Structure formats: C-alpha cells, structure tokens
Amino acid sequence: METLFGIVVDGVAYGMILFIISVGLSVTLGLMRVVNLAHGAFAMVAGYVASYAAQGLGLPYAVGLVAAILFTVLATLPLEKLLYRRIYGSANELAQVLLTIGLTFVIVAGINYLFGPTLKRIPLPDALLGTVAIGPKSIPVHRAFVIAMGAATVLGLWWLLERTDFGIKLRAAVDDPNMAAALGIRTERLYTATFALGTGLAALGGVLGAELLPLEPYYAIRYIVLFLAVVAVGGAGNILGSAAAALALGIVDTAGKYLIPSFGEFFFYAALILILFRWPHGFFQGRAA
Amino acid sequence: MSGTFRKALLGTAFLCALAVDGGAGSAWADTIKVGVIAPFSGPFATVGQTFKQAIEVYQAQHGKTVAGNTVEFVYKDLDQANPAQSKALAQELVVKEKVGYLAGFFFTPDALAVAPLIDEANIPCVIFNAATSAITEKSPRYVRTSFTLWQNTVPLAEHVAKQGIRKVATAVSDYGPGIDGETAFKQTFEKSGGKVVDSIRMPLKSTDFAPFMQRIKDSGAEAIYAFLPAGPTTLGFARAFSDTGLKAAGIKFFGPGDITQEPDLPVLGDAAVGITTTFNYSQAHESDLNRQFLAKHKELFGSSDIVTFTSVGAYDGAHVIYRMVEATGGKSDGAKAVEAVKGMAWESPRGPVRIDPESRHVTQTIYLRVTERKDGKLQNTEVAGFPDQPDYGFKAGK
Amino acid sequence: MSGRHTGAVVIDPSPPVAAHEPRFRRALGGAAVPLLAAAGLAAFWLFPNDLGLMTRIAATALYVLSLDLVLGFGGIATLGHAAMFGTGAYAAGIAAVHLVSDPLVLLAVGGLAGGLVALVTGALILHARGLTLLMLTIAVVQIVQEVVNKARDLTGGSDGLSGIEPSPLFGLFRFDMFGRTSYLFALAVLLVGFLVARRIVRSPFGLACRGVKEDPLRVAALGGSPRRYLVTLYAVAGVFAGVAGALTAVTSGIVGLDSVSFSWSAEALVMLVLGGAGRLVGAVIGTVAFMTIHHVMAAIDPFHWMLFIGLFLMGTVLFLPGGIASLADRLIKGNRA
Question: What ipTM did this prediction achieve?
C-alpha cells in the first residue's frame, strides 16, 4: 500500500513536470496547427537565459524565471513574423517539420557556440531545496513547487481559452479562419499572441523542468519525442487532455521503472500504443481546447 | 641567410643521424598522418574537444616530429555511436588521406567497426576511450590507453567489502558498459563475502530517477554501486540520490569515476560531494607531470577545467603513437608497430602505466577518490591507490 | 480533411509546381534511371577515394526511397521508418554471423524481415492518422530498439553486431577495404530498387494508393479498402527498407543500435522532404544532397556543421518548397514562359 502510494506520488510529480514542458507544444500544435519541433529549442533557450541570469548576473531565481520567459517570447516573435507565418495552415506540415528542425539545428549550434557543450544548471533558491513529506512519502520541495505551478497553469489556460474574449476568438479562428476574418477578427494578431503564449509556456517549462531535463545544447532534440508523446495522448490543443495524459504517462512510467526497471522503456511506449488505440485522438476526443 | 642555411644543414645532418639510428625505411623525412575519429559535434562534443586539446598539449610539449617524421593528426567527426559511419570514415582516412594510424573512438561499436579494416590495411588503432573489454580481442592491431569497467570496478568492490559493508544495490544503465560494471561488481563483491541485494538496470533514456531511488530504499542496501554514461543522466541520478533523501539516510554512493568526471562537477554541485569512485585519472592527481600537463593545457586553451579521463586517454595515446612511429622509422607496418609497444612502460600524468603485452590494454594504478569541495571548487581527491591493475575483463568469457 | 475536427496533423506533400507538367515529369522520369546510373558510375571514376561515403549514400538512398513510397505515394506520415531498416540490417547481420554469407541471400533475408515487421506493425497502426499515427510509428521504432538492445546474445546489444563477413559477390568480387565492390553493388541494388519502385508506383496498385492518399472516402465508395491498400504499401516499402538495411550491413560489416533509432527515422524524413517527396528522384537527390553537405561541412568544421545544415534546411523550405527535385520543373517552366 505504501509502495503504491509512493509510486502515485512520484508519478504525479513526474507527470506534472512532463505537462509543464509539453503544454506549450500542445498550444501551438492544436490551436495553430503548427508542428513546432523547435519547441524544445525555445525551452532550452529560456533555460540558458535563466542559468546565465542566476550564475552570470547573480539574479534571484524568480527574476531569472521571468527574465527567461520575457526574453524567449521577445526573441521568438520576429521568428513568427519571418518564418512561421509563411508555413501556417494544415497543407504545410512537411514544410513545418523541415523548417522547425532546421531552426532547431541553428539554435543548437548557436547555444553550443555561446555556452559550450557542457551541462549547465539553474541554481535553486534555498526555499526550493530539501524534501517535503506527503504522508509516508517524501518528495523534493522543487517537485512540489512544480506540481503547484502545473496546477496553476492548467487553471490559467483553461480560464484563458474558455472564459475570455481572446479564447473565444481564437477558437473561432481555429475552426474557420476565413469566417473569423469575415467577422472582423484580426486573425494575424491573434496568431501572434497565441504563438507568444506557446513560446512563453515552453520557456516556463524549460526553466522549471531543468532539474529533471538538464540543460545542454542537445536538449532541443533529445526530449522532443517526450513532448510529442504527451501532446498526442492528450489531444493537440486540449489543455485538460494534456494534463491527464502527462499524469497518466508519468504514473505508468514510474510504476514500470519501479516494478521492472530493465523493461522501463517498454512500459512507456506500450502504454502509449494502448492509449492511442483506445483514444486515437487523445483523451477528451473531439473537444478542442 | 647563412643562418638559415646552417640550420638546414644541421637539420639534415640530424635527420640522417636519426635515420641511421632508426634503421631501414626512414631514409627521408616524411609526414605521418594519424586519423582521429571522435565526436566533435553533438551531445558528446566535449569528448572530441578533450581529445584534440590533449593531443595539442602533447605536441606542444614533445614537438611535432619524431624520428625525423612529422606527425599530423587528422580529425573526423562522428557525433554518436554509428558503426557503419565509423567504418566509412576510417575507410576514407586510410584510402584517401593515407593515414598510417587510426585513433580516438569514444563508443565501443565505433571502435569494433574498424577491426576488419585495420587488419586488411595492417595499420595500428590506438583507442583513447571505448571501454568494453572485448574490443582488443577482435584484432591484434588494437592498443588501448583508457580503462575498462572491469578494471575500475574490481578494486572498488574489494574496497567496499573491506569497509564492512555487506548489502549493496547496483544501479547501472542498461547497455554494454553498465552490464559489464554490474557483473564485475557482483562477482568480486560476493566473492569477498558481501551480498548484492538488488540489481537495477535503468533504461538509457531515463530522465526521472525517483522510482529507482525508491527501489534502492526498499532494498535495504547500505550502499549503492552506480554506473551511468557521463552527461545528463548521471546528473539526474546523482541529484535524485540526494534530493530523495537517500544521501541523508546515510546510504553510501560508490561507482566508477565516469560519473564524477571533471566537466560535470560544477553542475553536479553538492550532490556530488561524498561520492566515492575508483578511476585511472583525476585532475587533482598529485604529480609534477600532471601539474605540467595542466599548466600547458591552461597556457594553450585558457582553462584546464575540462581536463578529464578522455584527456589523458588521448595524451597517452599520442605518446604510444609517437613510440610506434619511432619504432617503425615512419614506415607503415601495423604489426611491427604494435609489437614495439607491447610491454612498454612510462610515467603518465595519471601515474605509472604499462601496455600489457597480452591484452594490449593499459595496466595502471586505479585510484580511490572522494569528491569534495576544495578552495570553492569540486574535485576528485585521491585517497588511495591500487597499483598495477590489469583489465580483469580480458577473456573473462562472454 | 479529418485533421480539421480532431486537431490531428495531415501530411500532404503533393508538389505544387509539378502537377501542371505531366509530360516533362514523364520525360524526366524516363531518363531518371540512365541518368542515375551514369552519375553513379561517373562518381565512381571521379571520386575513387570516397567510395566508403558513396556506398553509404547509395544504401541510404534506397532507404529514403522506401520512405517516399510510404509518405509520398501513400500519405502515411512516419517517424519510425528505421524500424524496418534496422530489422533488415540485424536480420541480415545475424544470418551472416550464423548461417549464410552470400550477399544476395543476405539482402533477401533483410528484405523479408523488413517486410514482415512492416506488415505486422502496419496492420496494427495504420487505422490512425496524423499526429496519432506519427506517435505510433515512433513508439514502434523505440520498442524495436529496446528488443534489439535486450537480445544481447543475438545482436550484441549496444556494442553492435560485428563480425559480418559476406562472401565475395557471385563468388568473384571480394568486399575489400577500397570499397569498389561495395559501391558498385550498392549502386546496382539502388538502381534495381528504383526500377521496381517505379513499376509499383505506376501500377494500378500504385495509382490506387495515390487515390487513397488524396481521397480515402472515394476509394472506399468505389469498393476498395483504403486500409488494405495502405498496409500492403507499407509492407512493400518495408521490404525496400529491409533490403537497404541489409545492404548497409553487408557493405559495412557491422550493425549498431543507431540503425533502429528515432533519429535515423527523422533523418530519412529530412532527406526526403529536402529532395522532394512524392517523386522517386526526389528521394535520391535529397539523400545525395544531405549526406554530401553533411560530410563536407563536418570535414571543414566538425564543431559547427549543424548551423550550416540548419540554414540549408530552412532555405529549402522558404525558397524551394517542392524540394530540390522541383528545381528542374521550375527551370523548364521558366524557360518556356
């Protein structure tokens, strides 16, 4: 019983981290129909900015986090104008894949040039060090913090997409861009805003997840399968779905690794296949956003 | 003008003397090329960088000529384990670049891939890293200057047993070297009266190590033996070990020194403090030769912080190649070159080393090290040495 | 399009320019094989010292060609094509170590293994589309890789499967270190593969597959089973990929875990889109371009080749959307206008 509880706690903690680093991709992929393989690269850029802010400039963790998000969003906005705008639309998926892989390569090379190939870290503030007890099980404080942030992100995004004017317009534009434009919705600005939202979330995930996915130039490529898995299982663009998917995969993965460690990899992908069989379009099928 | 002429004359005379000394075949000075295959881009780019820098340090200290032959290193990038590509690159080096030596190799399959080629072309291959014991059995032209998992693990297991520790859990990455380490530890430790209470093989792509930590905790082990490839996974493992409270619970952490390699130490931070490892080289090794090596490295590249086991592997590899060039007088003869370095012993920045004639692998002192903070910087402090350790895995049967 | 309602990704790589130029495409297609053969042989004489790389290019081109059958002509988006390539390579390698050494038999073994894996996994996963399908193919390749890694006794695990020593081709030509036999053999297999692939693409079956890609509903309405067509196509392409894997095993003498990896699958996709999906020449051109550029860049600057290759990819998307192969169409069209 205690073991089971331990697995669930560890699994939820892992799942929340998965959620927070994948949800940005779910936004761009689901709401903008862009297969943004550079998602990991954006997250990595933010991680490096936060790392530099903390270690190079000596700024506090929270300031570094905000600076990283702002920097990443501002730095990628020109990319949206120059590159992404040319490849919007579902007829362009292959072009999207190629362009964003190319962009990823360029970012990887750039980071490698600027920071070198060694691992980098974002030092945690004292408040996030140590462990916290949840019943008989103790988990690192940092993970508890990520769980809280993840929950806040789910609520915030749900509110933004379901309850605000922005969300309504966005969903209208996704369902029928021409009709939305005819109704006077300025789709271009809407897309820019959504893109910024996606990269902002990527940045948040990059910084918060750095304890689990350490920063190095190949970060951008190494974890892309993980992000895609969460988005596919959750259903692209579906925030609650992504959260449920991340938690499910996190728990399955943790249980597999605990019970039969040497077949850990099988569990993750077998679960993926089974879930996609049962729900080919992700959890909460047919309910966009 | 006349000065130049005199120098040239002197040089010629010197070369002639060497040529006579070196025996047949080196009647004129020649450029001898050494092809180095290693990761220079990609996730393991640091390895290629340490190889290249160490070779440049060696050449800066010992000159670029030996026995009248200029030794030139040619680098080929192989960013990840990809044996087919390794073979193609080696082929290009041999056929197109006309190299007389192959060297480098970080991953085992890449090194194994060139075995038929070096036999057919009769050229020596000096391995700077790839650590699976079986490699040198596959061709008589392999010489290795690194270490094997067996070599590092056997003295460690004996040491752990001597500490009075009886119950150990092993946690290794689920691939060749990890399994080598697990086997070596288990055999040696149980022979010394200890018991391995849990053998965990972790998938290579693991990112979250919390479940393994829970398992270690549940196994009731007093200590762990862990091996993961250097890089992000090691970091994740060491951090999880301290984050989940295993470290605070007094469980001891042992492993081969890859896991606390110098380039990763600043990132590992305090999580690394107290980890006990065995390895062939520490940057903190106390010897004049090592201090000179580090000083030269710093002079050439501005910092010697990333100097680590791959550096000395390449440095000593370059030394072996120089001796081979000397012995063959610059003529390309792999069998003779390898024969010449069998049994060769010298002092390296890591300590005394020797090429074992049978396994063609380096016999060396394996040091017991504890990771600690000294003058604000983390280092692997050597606390004891086990001299003359051979590759226990050679022909261990598999 | 089903992607509309579900948020799935539908990949549709129909070359926009070429559609209006059927006659030129035909003419180009007819000349393709002699041209490829001539270029391949010319390279043999021109670059006698680069045969190792060129052998790899030829074998890889066959692998990318197989992906083109699946993606370009069947519209199946996959990031797991290396599952078939790697299975073929390992099957041939294991056969070579334990059973036979004739290179042609080894290719057949590889093709059979690749086709079998494709048939089984295709039947399982081809009901899905878009991102779901993409993820399923990734899961398949990861699981196959784990199986190979676990079966260490048979495959050598992460150390790779070495000791593959094929006997001389036709009992006459040895696979030596200069790589002449390897290259000419690989080139010949590629050309034969290309001819067969063209036959398939132009056959009624191939046309039906294209029909499925463009409008599955209509095919179903006409009484065909879209899924059956796709599974068959997938299996056929699996044979090609398996042969390509076996070819790599035979010519390099070793197989590693990288040959069943996600990244090798992704690389194939990049090469295909670069060259131009939906036309067989595109696969070959893309492979040659990508691997040559990679090789040259890595030789010039091993530390930063990724920057160049990244810019090259982006440039292709922005300025040459139909891939490199569409360049010819553009030139022809430009001349006539």
Answer: 0.84
